[in-house]
Amino acid sequence: MKIALTLLLPLFAIAQDQPLVLQAGAVLDGKGGVQRNVSVVVQNGKIQKIGATAAGASTDLRRLTLLPGLIDTHVHIAWHFGPDGRYQPRDTSQVTALGYALENSYVTLMAGFTTVQSLGSPIDGDARDAINRGILPGPRILTALRPFQDTRMTPAQIHEYVRKVASDGADVIKIFASKSMRDGGGRTLSKDQIAAACGEAKARGLRAVVHVYDAETIRDVVDAGCTTIEHGTLANAGALEYAAAHGTFFDPTVGLVTQNYLLNRSRYEGIGNYTAEGFASMQQNIDAGLVVFKQALKTKNLKIVYGTDAVAGAHGRNIEGLIYRVQTGGQDTKSAIASATSLAAASLNLGDKVGTIAPGMEADIIGVEGDPLKDITALRRVVFVMKGGRIYRFR
User: What is the C-alpha to C-alpha distance for residues 168 and 125, in angstroms, rounded to an integer?
Assistant: First the structure.
């Protein structure tokens, strides 16, 4: 099974014109379905068919479990530690900034995440475009470019701001309607301001995701027709039920980002609001976030997607939040996998392209050692990564 990547390059070239057959021991389709001992046929970057046997150049993956490429709906792909090992929020060189973003993109892809939404930094757009040119390895990146967080803007000014970000090439609009939890998580935008931002995003054909914590503001976000609630650490049952009734996606971001900050405390502390008080608040909010996550699981029809808020220190470890959701949060494994595949794709308006292993879909396929349905930690053992029909990892 351990084939050098250089030996796979000729195989990839053949696969563009001829079928490439992935012989699989098991296939999890991303929507809860499981097939065993089947072949997945890939041609011209797409999945052509799935069946018992197929003709074509064959790659033996029978010792692996195949899944759709994983999706993280909330990352900060450009965040990194500088040469001194400390968090570096700004780089003097744009070339340096892009280099770090591409490094983070590479380790994220190697961990099995073939699509991410970065929320966001202007350099994300450059990373997205570089990867899309097809030379450098990295996940498919959707980016907000410049999040909206100016509390002084009038609704008219907000409309203009969103139009400008859209014209600059943003894939999504990111809105800060609350402070950081390190600063208490209080509300920052009015109902009218939220409505202006989400309404203009919709008018531009873009989704809007909102950084928000408390129940009252969550209701305003839902009323405004925003696409996704990010975080929601101070939500209550009523707010979650309200989101579910209106079809709003919910990304609780539990299990990785806060733990990563605490793990790397010495690399963040003393920068901005990364203070002793801020870290104490984060420690307390681990339990608060878990309570809300468990309440979310009980909320009928709530569309819970998988996002980590991955920052410096977390890139390439994106799967840890999903493992936490299952092992600590009690989420059903099939639902957890769907939240990082088919449901995540739907939240990005990519449900007809990625997130599912099925004929006609993009050939974003990963292989892991073990069975994630029996042991969710198998998702740490990614040994095969294909994105758009191209093999990036096989070991």
Answer: 9
